[in-house]
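re: ur question from earlier - yeah i can do the single chain one, its not a big deal. heres the input i used so u can compare w yours
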Amino acid sequence: MDRTAKAELATMLGEVFNTSGVIVVAHYAGLRVAELQKLRKDAKQAGASVQVAKNRIAKIALEGTDVAGIAPLLQGPTLLAYSSDPIAAAKVVADFAKTNDKLVILGGASGSTALNVDGVKALAALPSLDELRAKLVGLVQAPATKIAQVVNAPAAKVARVFGAYANRDAA
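and the output i got, formated as C-alpha cells:
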C-alpha cells in the first residue's frame, strides 16, 4: 500500500469515526475468509459496515475525533464495525460472536462515550431503531383506538335501550 492509498484510507476512516453512531472493535484472528464475508454480509443487511484496517492508520485517523478513546484497543488483528444507527453494528458483531468464538469483542464507542465489552453487549441487547419506531407507532395508535371505542360505546348503549323498549312494547 503506497502513501497515497494510506492517506486516503486514513481520511475515509476519519470521516467514519466522526459520523458513525457506534463503532465496535474486535479481534478476528482465526476467522476464515468465508466467515469474515458472512459477517460483512450480515452487517450490510443490518445497515452497518465492517472494515479491517491497519492499526497504525486507524490510530492516525482517530486523532482529534470524539472516539479517540478506542485507540488503546487497536492492537493485534482488529476489525472495526460501524453504523450510523447507534445499535446496528453492536448487534451484528455480538450476534456473530455468539456463534463464532474466534471473533472477540474488545470494546467500542457510542458517540463520545467509550464502551467496554459489557457496554457493547448491553448496547446490542437494546431493540433496533426500527423496532423502537414500531413500538412508538403502536403506542400512539393504541390510545386513538381506545378513544374511538369509548366515543362509540354510549351510542351503542342508547341503541340497545331503544331496542329494549321497542321489544317490550311489541310483546
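Residues 127-171 form one domain. not sure if urs matches, ping me
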